[in-house]
Amino acid sequence: VKAAVFASGTGSNFQAMLEERDLACEIVLLVCDRPGAAVIEKAKQNRIPVYTFEPKRYATKEAYEKEILTVLQQAGISWIFLAGYMRIIGPCLLHAYQGKIVNIHPSLLPAFPGKDAIKQAFNTRAEKTGVTVHFIDEGIDTGPIIAQQVVDIYPSDTIDLLTKRIQKVEHQLYPSVIKQLIQNEGDL
Ligand code: GRF
């Protein structure tokens, strides 16, 4: 089973997937919308092919997604894992990969969707937040939830400490959910 990761940033979740010995699928492509992103280096170090594009060079989302779709199909990819990909997936990819696009978000959705989810939770002085892995639909962080894990917020916390604690949970939860999804599919 072949999978692509879409990421725009540092790529710590991407790295965690690559380090998982038993992911039940093979990450064969990184798709990145920011040519300078640190995640690209991580792909190169691991000899994973990278498809980079600059959205502003295209007239529409549909135009760049059509190109991505061609690349995905040529590579025989059946799953897409979003890991800090800061764009909404449009109808072109959604229809081609229905039920096969998964995202990770650093809150207990539906609480704190969108950007700065960790900061949002921290600033409201919530007692807990967490991590959600969910399927993608047309909304922002609204698709069906697959798995969640709670992360406590302590009175002594700083945003940095909380962020690190959340990342640690992400790096364990995402690979394990991916593995389960692929194995369940194989059992059907
Ligand atoms: C993660 O917190 C993920 O939940 C969110 O974006 C962040 C990506 O971090 N969607 P990284 O690039 O994997 O380090």
TrEMBL record:
<keyword id="KW-0808">Transferase</keyword>
<feature type="binding site">
    <location>
        <position position="103"/>
    </location>
    <ligand>
        <name>(6R)-10-formyltetrahydrofolate</name>
    </ligand>
</feature>
<feature type="binding site">
    <location>
        <position position="61"/>
    </location>
    <ligand>
        <name>(6R)-10-formyltetrahydrofolate</name>
    </ligand>
</feature>
<feature type="domain" description="Formyl transferase N-terminal">
    <location>
        <begin position="2"/>
        <end position="178"/>
    </location>
</feature>
<dbReference type="InterPro" id="IPR004607">
    <property type="entry name" value="GART"/>
</dbReference>
<feature type="site" description="Raises pKa of active site His">
    <location>
        <position position="141"/>
    </location>
</feature>
<feature type="active site" description="Proton donor">
    <location>
        <position position="105"/>
    </location>
</feature>
<comment type="similarity">
    <text>Belongs to the GART family.</text>
</comment>
<dbReference type="Pfam" id="PF00551">
    <property type="entry name" value="Formyl_trans_N"/>
</dbReference>
<protein>
    <recommendedName>
        <fullName>Phosphoribosylglycinamide formyltransferase</fullName>
        <ecNumber>2.1.2.2</ecNumber>
    </recommendedName>
</protein>
<feature type="binding site">
    <location>
        <begin position="86"/>
        <end position="89"/>
    </location>
    <ligand>
        <name>(6R)-10-formyltetrahydrofolate</name>
    </ligand>
</feature>
<comment type="pathway">
    <text>Purine metabolism; IMP biosynthesis via de novo pathway; N(2)-formyl-N(1)-(5-phospho-D-ribosyl)glycinamide from N(1)-(5-phospho-D-ribosyl)glycinamide (10-formyl THF route): step 1/1.</text>
</comment>
<dbReference type="InterPro" id="IPR002376">
    <property type="entry name" value="Formyl_transf_N"/>
</dbReference>
<dbReference type="GO" id="GO:0005829">
    <property type="term" value="C:cytosol"/>
</dbReference>
<feature type="binding site">
    <location>
        <begin position="11"/>
        <end position="13"/>
    </location>
    <ligand>
        <name>N(1)-(5-phospho-beta-D-ribosyl)glycinamide</name>
    </ligand>
</feature>
<comment type="function">
    <text>Catalyzes the transfer of a formyl group from 10-formyltetrahydrofolate to 5-phospho-ribosyl-glycinamide (GAR), producing 5-phospho-ribosyl-N-formylglycinamide (FGAR) and tetrahydrofolate.</text>
</comment>
<dbReference type="GO" id="GO:0006189">
    <property type="term" value="P:'de novo' IMP biosynthetic process"/>
</dbReference>
<dbReference type="InterPro" id="IPR036477">
    <property type="entry name" value="Formyl_transf_N_sf"/>
</dbReference>
<keyword id="KW-0658">Purine biosynthesis</keyword>
<dbReference type="GO" id="GO:0004644">
    <property type="term" value="F:phosphoribosylglycinamide formyltransferase activity"/>
</dbReference>
